[in-house]
Amino acid sequence: MVEHVRDYLEQHQDRFVGELVEFLKIPSVSADSTLKAETRRGAEFVQQQMEAAGLESQIIETAGHPIVYGSWKKAEGKPTVLVYGHYDVQPPDPLDQWQTPPFEPDIRDGHVYARGATDDKGQMYTHIKSVEAWMKTQGELPVNVVFVIEGEEEVGSDNLDRFLAENKDLVACDIAVISDTSQYAPGIPAITYGLRGILACEVIVNGPRQDLHSGVFGGAVTNPANGLARMVAALHDDQGRVQIPGFYDNVIELQQEERDQFAALPFDEAKFMSDLGVKAVSGEAEFSTLERRWARPTCDVNGMVSGYTGEGPKTIVPAQARVKISCRLVPDQDPAALTRALEQFLLEQLPAGLTMKFIDYHGCKGLVFDFNSPYMAAARTAIEQAFGTAPVMIREGGSIPVVETFQSLVGVETLLLGWGQNTDNLHSPNERFSLEAFRQGTLASALLWQELANIQV
Questions:
Q1: What is the pLDDT of residues 27-81, one digit of tens each?
Q2: Per-domain residue ranges for the chain?
Q3: Which of 12, 42, 155, 447 gives 87 a disulfide partner, CB atoms 3.0 to 4.6 angstroms apart?
Q4: DSSP string covering 227-278
Q5: What average pLDDT does range 101-114 have in this prediction?
Q6: Domain of life here (predicted)?
Q7: Which overall architecture, per CATH, does domain 197-251+297-362 show?
Q8: Which of 183, 180, 371 shows the shortest CA–CA distance to 260?
C-alpha cells in the first residue's frame, strides 16, 4: 500500500514542483492592502489544490484575509490530525537585493527561489500533495485530516483565534502538525519539541515639552536619552542575568537528558560567530550557546531612538526617548505577569524629572512537548524513512503563537516538522527552498499518516 503512495509521489514530483512554482508567483503579501486581491488568489489556489487532492474544502471569510478549510474524516476509530499553515508571505523588500524577482520563481542549484518558498508555501504544500498521493492510489487516508490554512500569519493572525474559538467542532483533533520550522542543518532533519514565548513592549520617556539647547539648559534638566539609557542598563547585571523581579521564578529548568542531546549535536561555535560577524558569544555563564538560544529566557532591546540622528552635530537635550523591548520566555513564565513586572521595574528606575508611557504589544507562553510521546515516535519513524537518517530533537528560540492557541483552545499538542533550513533566507531577499527537501518532506508527510494511524485514540 505505502509503496503505491511512494511510487505516485515519485512519478508526479515534477508536476508538484510546477504547481509550487505557480503558487509562488502569487504575491500574497497580507501586509500590503494593494495586494488584497492577490492574497485572496492565494487562498483560492490552496482551496483548488485541496479539492483536487480529494479533500472537502471551502474558503471561510474573516474580517481580514480568508481561511482555507479542508477535511477528510472517514477513517473511523483513527486519529484526527489538524494541519496548519499559511498562504500569505512577507513583503519582498528590499527588491534590489534579489538576484531574480521575488514573484518570478527561479530554479537554480537545486532550489526554487521566490518569496514564500520556505515560509510557508513550499512546506505547507507538502501536506496537500501527500494527501493527494493517498487519495489517488488508495481512495482513502489512514487517518482523518483537517486543514486550516490562513492568510494572516505574517500580520499577527488577528482572525485565527476567533475562527478556532467559534468552530471547535470543525477543528477538533488529536494532534496538530505544522511545517513552518527548519531542519537542524543540511542532512540533519529535526523535530522541534519546544518553543520560547514572548512579551513585547515599547517604553516612551518624556522630559521637557520640546528639544532644548544643550548649552543653555544642559545640566539643569534631566535628559530623557541619558535617563532611558540608565533604565535599560539596569535590566541586566554584570553576568547577563535579567533583573526584573520574579523573572526566573517559574522557569522550568532543562533536564539533563535535554542538555546531553544538545551537547551531542554538531555545533561549531567558531563558525557560528564567524557567520554572524561577532567576536564572542555571551549570555548566562552556566549554559551553552544552544541552551541560551533555545531554552533560556532573555530580555533584549529591539530598537532605541532619541534626539537628533541626522548628519553632523546638533547640540540638544531631546524632549523624548523611546525603546522597544522584547523578552523571550520559557515554560512556565507568564507573559502577562512579567509584562507588569517589567513596567513596574522600569518605573522604579525612572529618573526624577521624567515621565514614562508603557505600551504592551503582545505576548505568548513558551511551550515544551513530551519528546517521548507516541506522536513524536510516529514522526521520528516517518522522517527517518523519508530522509534516510533519524531526526534530532531540538528546541526553537522563536515563538509560534498558534501553537499555544492549539494547546489552549483546541487542547492538543503540535508536531513541529520543518523541511527547510535556517539558511533559506526567510523574510529576506533570495528566499529559497531545496527541491530535495520538498520531495523528502512530501514523502515524510505521506508516511506520517500511516504511522499516526497505528496510535490508539
A1: 999 999 999 999 999 999 999 999 999 999 999 999 999 999 999 999 999 999 9
A2: 1-195+366-453, 197-251+297-362
A3: 42
A4: HHHHHHHTTB-TTS-B-STTTTTTPPPPPHHHHHHHHHS---HHHHHHHHT-
A5: 98
A6: Bacteria
A7: 2-Layer Sandwich (3.30)
A8: 371
